[in-house]
Amino acid sequence: MTPTLFICVNRRRGAGSCSGGGAYEVMAVLRTEIEARGLGWDIRLSPCLGHCALGPNIKASPNGPLLHGCTDGKEVMARLLEWRRG
Ligand code: FES
């Protein structure tokens, strides 16, 4: 099954949120990394994943981790590749 990354892009007024924390910028890096590797993974925009104070948050599917503090796209990519290697 093709991996799908659900990236929270929620914005909360007056509070920390994934969008405000750089989720779109991380998503752009991940798109580039995935394309450069020819992985064909899907990326979907997600509503709030319920861990706003720990964001930006990304849920990997199927059965992947819920990653917190996703501010560095290359570091997130490394964590995701580790997940896929098992
Ligand atoms: S705003 Fe992203 S988890 Fe709530």
TrEMBL record:
InterPro entries: Thioredoxin-like_sf. SUPFAM superfamilies: Thioredoxin-like (SSF52833). It comes from the Bacteria. This is (2Fe-2S) ferredoxin domain-containing protein. It comes from Magnetospirillum gryphiswaldense (strain DSM 6361 / JCM 21280 / NBRC 15271 / MSR-1).
